[in-house]
């Protein structure tokens, strides 16, 4: 269920049948329904403006994991670019601590069916402490940075 939504109702105000699909809402306070179940037709329904928490055209770098690898002596991460499919970009792992910043080598990103994949990234770290880690994606047309994740290096 989407954040902020407690339940779904049909146009008549009755509870919608239980469903396992993702709720879909129109932007004009028109009918609400679940994906796969059409809303009752209404001349006021704006079916071209389905909304979610983020704009459909807003690309963002999403971290899938970040961890300290004792075996590698490195911070390792994986990420992808949501909302963007393109070739030719690179991903870079960046870690900051104590006013300093370390930057990994740029790794080529791969265009997938619905995202751009940064794959696995690694950054050797020789100094212990709490590091703020992020991934930056850059191409000829786009530059994006993920939110930060915290990693403790012993």
Structure notes:
This protein is mainly β. The protein folds into two domains: 1-52, no CATH class; 60-153, Immunoglobulin-like (Sandwich), CATH 2.60.40. Helix content is 0%, strand content 47%. The protein contains no helices and 13 strands. Strands 6, 7, 8, 11, 12 and 13 form a six-stranded antiparallel sheet that branches. A hairpin with a 4-residue loop joins strand 11 and strand 12. It is elongated.
Q: How can the largest sheet be summarized?
A: 6 strands, antiparallel
Structural class: mainly beta
Q: Please report the first level of CATH classification, the CATH class of the largest domain.
A: Mainly Beta
Work out the helix count. Answer: 0
Order of helices and strands: EEEEEEEEEEEEE
Which key features would you list for this structure?
2 domains; 154 residues; 13 strands; mainly beta; Immunoglobulin-like; disordered N terminus; four-stranded antiparallel beta sheet; 47% strand
Topology of helices and strands:
Layout: E1 23-26, E2 32-34, E3 50-51, E4 60-69, E5 74-82, E6 90-97, E7 100-103, E8 107-108, E9 110-111, E10 115-124, E11 129-138, E12 143-145, E13 149-153
Antiparallel strand pairs: 1-2, 1-3, 4-5, 5-10, 6-7, 6-8, 6-11, 9-10, 11-12, 11-13
């Amino acid at each position: 269920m989407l954040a902020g939504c407690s339940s779904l109702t049909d146009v008549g105000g009755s509870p919608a049948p239980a469903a396992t699909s993702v709720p879909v809402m129109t932007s004009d306070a028109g009918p609400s329904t679940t994906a796969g179940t059409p809303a009752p037709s209404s001349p006021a329904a704006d079916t071209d403006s389905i909304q979610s928490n983020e704009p459909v055209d807003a690309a963002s770098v999403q971290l899938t994991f970040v961890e300290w690898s004792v075996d590698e002596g490195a911070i390792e991460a994986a990420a992808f670019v949501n909302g963007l499919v393109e070739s030719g970009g690179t991903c870079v792992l960046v870690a900051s601590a104590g006013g300093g910043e370390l930057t990994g080598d740029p790794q080529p990103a791969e265009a997938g069916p619905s995202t751009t994949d940064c794959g696995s990234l690694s950054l050797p770290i020789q100094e212990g402490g709490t590091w703020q880690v992020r991934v930056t994606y850059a191409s000829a047309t786009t530059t994006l940075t993920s939110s930060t994740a915290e990693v403790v290096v012993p």
